[in-house]
Amino acid sequence: MQLKQLQTKISKIFLDNAKRDNLKVDEDYLVLKINEEIGEFVQSYLIHKKKCRPQKFLKPKDSHREMAKELSDVVGLAFVLSKTLNIDLEEALVKKWITREWIKH
Ligand SMILES: [Mg+2]
Does the domain spanning 3-98 belong to CATH 1.10.287.1080? Predict the structure, then answer.
């Protein structure tokens, strides 16, 4: 699946769920939400690394899966946010990371 297809599908799922839950989704909400997801990823990372209370420990395979889930939430929110902000994320990724056109000299 291409990046744009993935972005479109994930954005639709996110927005459908928000509509179902009567949530008003605007840019501010999405900026807050991606930060919430970053926090959830950090928490899952701390659990995976066992840098948390022992009661939260999981089997390594389970904690690794939790990290993957939370990181996919961060990326998913980046997809939704970029669509809302009218940012071509694929182009931005290429210009920032691959061709380095957007790197300041
Ligand atoms: Mg999450």
Answer: yes
